[in-house]
Predict the structure.
Amino acid sequence: MRLTPKTPEVRVPQLVGLMAVDARETAETRGVLLAAPDRPDFHLAVVDYVVRQYPPPGAEVPRGAVITVWFDFGEGEGGGGAGVREPRRSGPPPGGMGRELDAPGDPFEVLR
């Protein structure tokens, strides 16, 4: 564990991407506290990854300040989905060669 000098202000560490256990340890060594509004059992979380934090990394805050971290993406923030789903039409797109030709008749039509 690395101890920081006893200054009244500390810099917020980069916590995004760290597992919960590592985020708690990093915050403790930097002299700040953590809160996780989306995890009431935050003190028990181990392998969940931090996806957001406030204040941002590098900001100066008073020693003992509370840094808020989130482990789930908020509405519209992503979360690993495949992106925006757009409506799809069934069948081939309109136009092309099919537009120029008449519809075919019966291929086995009896000729007299």
